[in-house]
């Protein structure tokens, strides 16, 4: 059974090629579409200044990271955690680009594609909801996932939220039409809610009793008289 690891990072800026660094990695593990409780979370002391714009997004400061390990110190532990898994990342090109840059910078010969497979949940969302907003916040609104505690971005928190979003996104149809809140004008609206995957799996099956079966057959007899034959009875006879 393939392990799935939902991953997110926070960085000092937007360009790995310009020397920006990862400053936080957050991962949560899933198997058989259920969270296992295993996580990986690490703050990292960077070799690059944190851009003011990035700090406004995640709120992580140089002072906070001063006593945290460098990427090289946690690199092998991280690789061991994700090796052989399917990584699920929202806008994967960004995070994978930074991870590959960090691995190369620190003399590691393998890259993420050598270590594990990658699924971009943003591409999955765009395919399922073309023309709609597919940011993590927009998907939370669409699938009625509570992210009210997400005042700032954080790698572990965002990976936990993305795990819920990904399970909803890949769990079947959730809406019969475009939710008003998903339109590009930013207006609010509500989508049709779905039954959670785990809840659906545990729904009880209640068989009809003798009296109910008798009433059902009497109704089918009535349909036979008023039509060319009850379709339900034809189907059950053929199968």
Features:
single chain, 239 residues, alpha/beta, Nucleotidyltransferase, domain 5, five-stranded mixed beta sheet, elongated
How are the elements arranged and paired?
Elements: E1 4-11, E2 22-31, E3 34-43, H1 52-58, H2 62-65, H3 71-82, E4 86-89, H4 92-105, H5 112-115, E5 117-120, H6 121-128, H7 136-142, H8 155-169, H9 197-201, H10 210-226, H11 231-238
Parallel strand pairs: 1-4, 4-5
Antiparallel strand pairs: 1-2, 2-3
- Share of residues in helices: 40-55%
Mean pLDDT: 82
Helix/strand order, N-terminal first: EEEHHHEHHEHHHHHH
CATH topology heading of the largest domain:
Nucleotidyltransferase, domain 5
β-strand amount = 15-25%
Radius of gyration: 25 Å
Number of domains: 2
Shape descriptor? elongated
- Give the helix tally: 11
CATH homologous superfamily label of the largest domain: Ribonuclease H-like superfamily/Ribonuclease H
Report the span from N to C terminus: 34 Å
Give the beta-strand count. Answer: 5
- Low-confidence segments, given as residue ranges, are 172-195
* Main sheet specs: 5 strands, mixed
The helix-and-strand class reads: alpha/beta
Going by CATH, the architecture of the largest domain would be 2-Layer Sandwich
Strands ordered across the widest β-sheet: 3-2-1-4-5
């Amino acid at each position: 059974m393939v392990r799935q690891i939902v991953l997110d990072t926070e960085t000092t800026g937007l360009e790995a090629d310009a020397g920006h660094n990862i400053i936080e990695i957050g991962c949560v593990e899933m198997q058989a579409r259920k969270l296992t409780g295993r996580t990986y979370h690490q703050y990292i002391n960077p070799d690059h200044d944190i851009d003011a714009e990035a700090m406004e997004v995640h709120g992580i400061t140089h002072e906070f990271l001063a006593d945290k390990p460098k990427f090289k110190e946690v690199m092998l532990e991280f690789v061991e955690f994700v090796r052989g898994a399917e990584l699920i990342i929202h806008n994967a090109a960004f995070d994978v680009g930074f991870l590959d840059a960090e691995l190369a910078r620190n003399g590691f010969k393998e890259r993420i594609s050598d270590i594990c497979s990658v699924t971009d949940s943003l591409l999955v969302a765009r395919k399922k909801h073309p023309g709609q907003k597919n940011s993590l916040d927009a998907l939370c609104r669409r699938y009625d996932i509570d992210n009210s505690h997400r005042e700032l971005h954080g790698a572990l928190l965002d990976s936990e939220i993305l795990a819920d979003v990904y399970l909803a996104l890949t769990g079947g149809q959730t809406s019969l039409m475009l939710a008003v809140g998903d339109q590009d004008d930013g207006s609010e609206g509500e989508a049709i809610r779905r039954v959670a995957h785990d809840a659906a799996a545990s729904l009880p099956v209640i068989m009809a009793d003798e009296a109910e079966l008798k009433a059902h057959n009497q109704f089918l007899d009535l349909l036979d008289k008023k039509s060319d034959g009850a379709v339900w009875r034809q189907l059950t006879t053929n199968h």
